[in-house]
Amino acid sequence: MYHKVLIACILAAVGCLPIRDLQAQTPDCHCFIKGVVRDDHTGQPVVGATLLLVGSNKGVFTDEKGRYQFYNLCPGSYQLECRIVGYQPRRQTIDLQEGHEENFALAEEEIHLKDVEITAQRNDAPITQPINTLSGADLTQTRGQSLGESLKGLTGLTTLQTGASVAKPVIHGMHSNRVLIMNNGVRQEGQQWGSEHAPEIDPFVATRLSVVKGAAGVRYGSDAIGGVILVDPQELPIDKLLSGEINTAFFSNGRQGVGSATLQGGIKGVTGLGWRAQGTLKRGGNIRTPGYFLNNTGSEERNFSLATGYRKRGFGAELFYSHFATKLGIFSGSHIGSVTDLLTVIERGEPLIKSGFSYTIGRPYQNVTHDLVKAEAHYHFADGNRLQWVSSWQFNNRFEYDLHQPRNDSLASLNRPELSFRLTTFTNDFIWDHKPLKGKIAGQIGLSTLYQYNLMSGRPLIPNFDQWNVGLFAIERLLKNGWEVEAGLRYDYRYLTTYRIVNRVKVTDEFRFHNASGTLGVGRNLTSKWSLRLNAGTAWRAPNVSELFSDGVHHGAAAFEEGDASLKPEKAFNSIGSVRYSVENLTVEVGGYYNYIRDYIYLKPQPEPILTVRGAFPYFKYTQTDATFRGIDATVDWKLSGRWSVGSKLTYLRVSDVRNNSYLVMIPANRWDNQLKLNLDDLNWGEKMYFLISNRWVGEQRRVPKASDFAPPPTAYSLWNVQWGATFAMAKERKLELTLTADNVLNTSYRDYLNRFRYYADDMGRTISLRARFSFGS
Amino acid sequence: MKMKTVQAIVLMAVATILFQCKSASEVEPDDENELITTVLLKFTETGTSTTTTVTYRDIDGDGGNPPTRFDQVVLKSNTAYALVVEVLDESKNPAIDITGEIKEKADEHLFIFTPNPSSLLTYTYGDKDARNLPLGLTGVVNTAAAGVGMLKVQLRHQPAINGSPVKDGTSGPGSDDVNIDFSVEVK
């Protein structure tokens, strides 16, 4: 389980002791860096933290008092990397002054002292897998969008959309039940199996969004096949002064307004306490494509969260509650009754009914709420052991209202949803971080349990069920001579019981799934410029109830989908490597992966259609095959001059159905993002300002199986965006950040293969957005 | 310290297991919403009182079992028939007659009869809604020379959008609630 601890590596002293030899031309190597590493949380010294001078062979460990020192260093610029095993490493540049040579006989107090605080935020993500993070200014630029949309700009990521209001994150071509989302350290449990079910998370809860790519099954359990998305708020402001921020965003397309505010602080007079309150409101109307409005595509959201925490010496406890509520209008032109309807729509190329703009949300629409309560307690022992217990309750309510109400007036007046799901989940995680062995090996052993039950009413798309999961894992990490090695094992067991009515008779089915996962990874900083990470791991995924029991027409897809109760769990074997080259003006990062998924579950078209009262529908059955996902994620950041910089990101993916020697449907096409940025950091009236022009090119997906779709994937497209941003620092630690963006500035008409509305209409036209972020306090 | 560690571990492990309340017992799954399970085409030769009923019946709705009854339309050549359509939900007990509800909401519904080949027979509407647009619950079928083919029977559901009616007498607006291809033999 994720838990946040701020570690401060405090450099007590940095400097160079002068020598008496003034004549020497060669710089004298008597500089030093020394200090103490303290746990910011408890104030206790951290034993066994590693400090490395990147590029050299110098690495030291903190002693039993948390002290470390580097002596006999030559003056110059160093990158000091503080690595506490189990934490995301953090680098800091230290400049060792050589300007004291002229002074000799200096007392130690007069030596240039610099307090360099390095804070490393703890992150339980595997350290040998690539992890992309959005925080700070990068995150501010995405504010106001949904979680899926916010992450879209990272390499390897894209979205599976149902129009503009529903976006699910896709990592390396995998989504829904193959991507796990950790919401403030808790597994997000909603009806993720649905391709039209967006994650019910307010990104404003987080100050950091991280994506772990590759199979992360050992740490996180089932479903972490494509990767894991970590939504993390900041550490609670224990004993700190009042601070907060207000975010507003306005989007021209859809005339959407978003407002979010956070207030946090300690409590005066009471030590050890901290609290945070946060809330978001969103309201938008019909979206517009370059040619026409999409009727009934408005949305609204009302979210809030509260958190409080207590710390005293080695003990900490936290309580968190979040409420997410959304009402999403579904484009009325996407409702089709039969294959004839769909083919007519595809041929027409645009919706028959063209509406104007409106904020009104009518049928069809989705009404979703998600409530999360999280309680956490932990204790640091003086000998270095740490225990943590995280408990959570989640309630996910999803109501879907069809376009057509019942014809019967008395039934219609009840205004019941045609589909209703209530999912309740309890989780308990218990983690023990054992004290570092020999100061080099650190690790954790954890026990995760989950109990969940689902109640549905309306159209029996998925049955009622309850399930019990338990997982036991151990991960060890070793730092030696600049090498980082990580190894882990996990065992999962799932017991699922479903309850259905078949031909007016209640049928109960039981399933037992179990799996063992492993991970092995290495990381190394080869020189100060090159670093390398390799990881091989496994992950698994039990079939979800929709894959086991679907039996009906999926209206949005004009397909009859049938499940298979004999499906086995998927097992993924993933290898992922990334290489990073970083010099002053240029950073290049290339990651490659090969993911082999055995028993991959997908919908296979059957030879004969299924006949219903609405005509014949193509018949798809959930089947298993073996699939490979191979790809490359590459990022280049090049600073051309003081002001100009160029960035490029490439996402390349090749997926194959190896058992049938074919392709798979709904695999995102390759994309290439490029940007040119002008940084103006030295103006008088804006502390920092930038202009940016960017282009996204998305290719045409040609690797599609035959006879699996009504319309071929859309052609390649290219979108241009321009952006302006400025940061104004004001008095008393107040800051105002403004961002003005024009997305799809040329109002290009396009359709994306992973947007399920591509049969019915074009994608969004031009959007001009203005974002403002005002923050105060520390 | 060590003992305290062990105690803490034991306490938390016990609490972990105890917290898994199995109090959520099975709940009776609900029944489905309104379905159209049965479409009846009642042909009465003009001038007689003999009615032939052609039935499409799929009691359990989409999926499950295939339609239990899917009759063929057999008509005499060069004859006029009065055609009355009935729509039922026979998955419920007692069966729900949806025909009446369609009639009440005539300005949201339209039956469309499409013969294939188009020369096989012609259909003429016998009823209208409040806006003078056809409905199709009653009508007249005129068969031509002997032959075989298909008759597509569609029920288009065309409710108003944003308060303005969209039904215009064509198949354009709305979506299919019924789309059945009956095989036809004209003798």
List keywords for this structure.
heterodimer, A: 778 residues, mainly beta, Immunoglobulin-like, Maltoporin, Chain A, five-stranded mixed beta sheet, 4% helix, disordered N terminus, B: 187 residues, seven-stranded antiparallel beta sheet, four-stranded mixed beta sheet, 2 helices
Question: How would you concisely characterize the structure shown here?
Answer:
The complex is a heterodimer of chains A (778) and B (187). Chain A contains six helices and 41 strands.
Structure notes:
The complex is a heterodimer of chains A (778) and B (187). Chain A has 778 residues and is mostly beta strands. Chain A contains 6 helices and 41 strands. In chain A, β17 and β18 (270-284) form a beta hairpin. Chain A starts with 5 loop residues before the first strand and ends with a strand. Chain B has helices at 2-18, 99-104, and strands at residues 38-45, 51-57, 69-70, 73-75, 80-89, 96-97, 109-116, 121-125, 138-143, 147-157, 175-186. Residues 18-25 of chain B have low confidence and may be disordered. Chain B has a single domain (33-186), classed as Immunoglobulin-like. Chain B is globular, with a radius of gyration of 27 Å. Chain B is mostly beta strands. In chain B, strands 1, 2, 3, 5, 6, 8 and 9 form a 7-stranded antiparallel beta sheet that branches. In chain B, strands 4-11-10-7 form a 4-stranded mixed beta sheet, with no helix packed on it. Chain B contains 2 helices and 11 strands; from the N terminus they run αββββββαβββββ. Chain B starts with a helix and ends with a strand. At the A-B interface, β22, β23, β24, β25 and β26 of A face α1, α2 and β11 of B.
